[in-house]
Amino acid sequence: MHSKKFRLVTEEQLHAVYGVPAPASLAKEADHVHEIYRPFIERAPFAVLATSGPSGLETSPRGDPAGHLVEVLDPNTLLMPDRRGNNRIDSLRNIISDPRISLLFLIPGIGETIRVKGRAEVMIDPDLLERFALDGRKPRTVLRILVERVFFQCSRALLRSKLWDSETHVERTALPSAGAILSALSANEIDGERYDIELPARLKSTLY
């Protein structure tokens, strides 16, 4: 076991290791959706939503065609539909308890990511639900996000991971299938083989 003397427990200790932020790291932050950031958010087809609640922290993937994932209503407000899922609603339950959220937006082929912090409300306004209908299906709820901080993250993490490099992509068969995972964790109560056979058609018919 590592000695406690190697564990950092104060901000002063962190700063002693990392120093102070570069001026550019501070200058890039805005308290609203600046026009320079708006196209990054509008072109993103994927985001990770982070929330916090009584049961702990939660991250949830969000995906839609670019332009449908989120709408910049105004410089201080984003709208994000909650699409069909597994009805666990972990993120939504967290938001009801603690409205603080964080979003990480990714655009395929682009190294920079956009980070948004703010507070969210879960809305069922009929006009909002209709506004985000896709394939004739409305979301059950829409998140109204009151923006507090927006800034970009440089491309180092994506360059190191080679996330957009097709040569590093992993074949799906190299990892356990969804059915195999469910079968293992349910002690074979769920028929994993049947689940995998039915999954492609189910995904296609229940995407929205």
Give a description of the structure.
The chain has 208 residues and is of the alpha+beta class. The protein has helices spanning 11-18, 23-27, 38-42, 90-97, 126-131, 156-161, 178-185, 192-205; strands at 46-53, 56-63, 71-74, 77-82, 100-106, 113-123, 141-153. Helix 7 packs across helix 8.
Write the layout of secondary structure elements.
Layout: H1 11-18, H2 23-27, H3 38-42, E1 46-53, E2 56-63, E3 71-74, E4 77-82, H4 90-97, E5 100-106, E6 113-123, H5 126-131, E7 141-153, H6 156-161, H7 178-185, H8 192-205
Antiparallel strand pairs: 1-2, 1-5, 3-4, 4-7, 5-6, 6-7
Helix pairs in contact: 7-8
Domain Pyridoxamine 5'-phosphate oxidase N-terminal: 37-154
InterPro entries: Pyridox_Oxase_FMN-dep (IPR024029), Pyridox_Oxase_N (IPR011576), Split_barrel_FMN-bd (IPR012349)
Protein name: Pyridoxamine 5'-phosphate oxidase family protein
Q: What is the chain-wise order of helices and strands?
A: HHHEEEEHEEHEHHH
The largest pleated sheet is described as: 7 strands, antiparallel
Nearest-integer average pLDDT:
96
Spatial ordering of strands, largest sheet:
2-1-5-6-7-4-3
**What's the level 1 CATH class of the largest domain?**
Mainly Beta
User: Can you tell me the overall shape?
Assistant: globular
β-strand amount: 25-35%
How does the helix and strand content classify structurally?
alpha+beta
Mind telling me which CATH architecture of the largest domain this is? Roll
- Based on CA atoms alone, the radius of gyration comes out at 20 Å
Q: How many separate helices?
A: 8
- What is the terminal separation in angstroms? 49 Å
Task: Give the low-confidence spans.
Answer: none
CATH topology call of the largest domain: Pnp Oxidase, Chain A
CATH superfamily annotation of the largest domain: Electron Transport, Fmn-binding Protein, Chain A
